[in-house]
Amino acid sequence: MTIQLGVFGTLGILTTVWAVVANRRLFAGGTVGRPAPLEVVYYAVGVLSLGIGWYCNVRYTHHAANASYWNYTKALFTNWAAASAAQDYTIVNLVLLPLWTIVDGRRRGLAIPWIFFVMSLFTSLAFSMALYLAFVERQVRYDASIGDGGAPGPVASAAPVRTTG
Q: For the chain, what is the domain count?
């Protein structure tokens, strides 16, 4: 294993642990209970995507002549079909994922929702999305268990709410 893979793997583990610790109220004290079936699906998809992604990344690192993040990114655009998928992935990962998780996560009351974007840089986009969706599932059940009825978290809206009077 290369040093780069070790560093990325360690940062992936640390960001995942950070997300769980920051949102520990969703996992502690039996408030939410056991994982719901949908939550289990999210975890399974996330772990599966992480395994497949890391398998491919390890193979790339050990088989490419100049394995680097820059060369990996350039390789995503080697033909028009790959470039089409790569631009989609890049826009989702670098623009839409952070906007979605930060805005929606704050609305729902998740602690440090930006961590899911940071996590995606060291794990995988699918793993981070799956973990975010699992956390949202737990947050909804947490709100219901404390009688909040799914009320929004600390930031109710990214835009001002207009009332007619």
A: 1
Distance from C-alpha of 13 to C-alpha of 40, rounded to nearest angstrom: 19
Could you list the residue range(s) of the whole structural domain that residue 119 is in? 3-145
Using the 8-state DSSP alphabet, how is residue 35 labeled?
P
Tokens matching residue 123: 């794990």
d(CA 141, CA 162): 29
Task: Output the pTM of the full model.
Answer: 0.85
Handedness of CA 75, 77, 80, 86 (dihedral sign): positive
Each of the 165 residues of the chain gets a pLDDT tens digit; together they read: 578 889 999 999 999 999 999 999 999 878 888 999 999 999 999 999 999 999 998 998 888 888 888 888 899 999 999 999 999 999 999 999 999 999 999 999 999 999 999 999 999 999 999 999 999 999 999 999 888 655 554 444 444 444 554
